[in-house]
Protein backbone atom coordinates (compact mmCIF):
# COMPACT_ATOMS: atom_id res chain seq x y z
CA UNK A 1 0.00 0.00 0.00
CA UNK A 2 2.77 2.42 0.89
CA UNK A 3 4.62 1.80 -2.36
CA UNK A 4 1.43 2.40 -4.33
CA UNK A 5 0.89 5.67 -2.48
CA UNK A 6 4.50 6.72 -3.16
CA UNK A 7 4.06 6.03 -6.87
CA UNK A 8 0.79 8.01 -6.99
CA UNK A 9 2.39 10.92 -5.13
CA UNK A 10 5.32 10.97 -7.56
CA UNK A 11 2.96 10.79 -10.58
CA UNK A 12 1.02 13.76 -9.16
CA UNK A 13 4.29 15.75 -8.98
CA UNK A 14 3.92 16.24 -5.24
CA UNK A 15 6.94 16.55 -3.00
CA UNK A 16 7.26 14.59 0.24
CA UNK A 17 7.09 16.01 2.93
CA UNK A 18 6.65 19.57 1.59
CA UNK A 19 3.34 19.00 -0.25
CA UNK A 20 2.18 15.82 1.45
CA UNK A 21 3.32 13.66 4.34
CA UNK A 22 3.20 9.89 4.29
CA UNK A 23 3.33 7.27 7.02
CA UNK A 24 3.88 3.59 6.30
CA UNK A 25 3.19 0.55 8.43
CA UNK A 26 5.49 -2.26 9.57
CA UNK A 27 8.78 -0.34 9.31
CA UNK A 28 10.07 -2.24 6.25
CA UNK A 29 13.83 -2.37 5.68
CA UNK A 30 13.54 -0.27 2.51
CA UNK A 31 11.95 2.62 4.45
CA UNK A 32 15.35 4.12 5.25
CA UNK A 33 16.92 3.81 1.79
CA UNK A 34 14.45 5.80 -0.32
CA UNK A 35 14.94 9.52 -1.17
CA UNK A 36 13.45 10.51 2.19
CA UNK A 37 13.39 8.20 5.19
CA UNK A 38 9.81 6.97 5.66
CA UNK A 39 7.93 7.66 8.88
CA UNK A 40 6.40 4.34 9.92
CA UNK A 41 4.36 2.60 12.54
CA UNK A 42 6.41 -0.26 13.91
CA UNK A 43 4.61 -3.30 15.22
CA UNK A 44 6.21 -5.96 17.43
CA UNK A 45 6.37 -8.70 14.79
CA UNK A 46 8.24 -11.18 16.99
CA UNK A 47 5.77 -10.74 19.88
CA UNK A 48 2.86 -11.04 17.45
CA UNK A 49 4.10 -14.43 16.24
CA UNK A 50 5.03 -15.63 19.73
CA UNK A 51 1.63 -14.67 21.14
CA UNK A 52 -0.21 -16.33 18.25
CA UNK A 53 1.87 -19.49 18.76
CA UNK A 54 1.12 -19.57 22.48
CA UNK A 55 -2.63 -19.23 21.87
CA UNK A 56 -2.53 -21.96 19.20
CA UNK A 57 -0.56 -24.36 21.41
CA UNK A 58 -2.97 -23.84 24.32
CA UNK A 59 -5.90 -24.44 21.96
CA UNK A 60 -4.31 -27.66 20.64
CA UNK A 61 -3.63 -28.83 24.20
CA UNK A 62 -7.26 -28.23 25.05
CA UNK A 63 -6.70 -25.41 27.53
CA UNK A 64 -9.69 -23.16 28.02
CA UNK A 65 -7.94 -19.81 27.59
CA UNK A 66 -11.03 -17.79 26.75
CA UNK A 67 -14.78 -17.99 26.33
CA UNK A 68 -15.08 -19.40 22.81
CA UNK A 69 -18.37 -17.52 22.33
CA UNK A 70 -16.49 -14.22 22.46
CA UNK A 71 -13.51 -13.22 20.30
CA UNK A 72 -10.12 -13.25 21.98
CA UNK A 73 -8.63 -9.75 21.85
CA UNK A 74 -4.94 -9.33 22.57
CA UNK A 75 -3.40 -5.89 22.20
CA UNK A 76 0.29 -5.44 21.51
CA UNK A 77 1.98 -2.05 21.60
CA UNK A 78 3.14 -0.30 18.45
CA UNK A 79 5.47 2.66 18.11
CA UNK A 80 5.65 5.61 15.74
CA UNK A 81 9.08 6.01 14.12
CA UNK A 82 9.26 9.60 12.89
CA UNK A 83 11.53 10.12 9.91
CA UNK A 84 11.79 12.51 6.99
CA UNK A 85 8.49 11.76 5.17
CA UNK A 86 6.51 13.89 7.61
CA UNK A 87 7.03 17.40 8.90
CA UNK A 88 6.99 17.96 12.63
CA UNK A 89 4.64 20.75 13.69
Question: How is this structure best described in words?
Answer:
The chain is α+β, with helices and mostly antiparallel strands. It has one domain (2-81). It is 29% helix and 11% strand. The chain has two helices and three strands; from the N terminus they run H-E-E-H-E. It has helices at residues 2-11, 45-60, and strands at residues 23-25, 39-42, 79-81. It has a three-stranded mixed β-sheet with strand order 1-2-3, with no helix packed on it.
Structural class: alpha+beta
Q: Summarize the helix and strand pattern as letters.
A: HEEHE
Largest sheet: 3 strands, mixed
Measured between the Cα atoms of the first and last residue, the distance is 25 Å
Number of strands: 3
Low-confidence spans: pLDDT under 50, at least 5 residues?
none
Strand content: 5-15%
Supply the number of helical segments: 2
Please give a quick description of this structure.
The chain is α+β, with helices and mostly antiparallel strands. It is built from 2 helices and 3 strands; from the N terminus they run H-E-E-H-E.
SSE map:
Layout: H1 2-11, E1 23-25, E2 39-42, H2 45-60, E3 79-81
Parallel strand pairs: 1-2
Antiparallel strand pairs: 2-3
Observed structural traits:
89 residues, alpha+beta, 29% helix, 11% strand
Amino acid sequence: MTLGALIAIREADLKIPDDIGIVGFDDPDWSIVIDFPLTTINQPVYNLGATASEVLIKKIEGSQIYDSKQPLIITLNTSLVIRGSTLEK
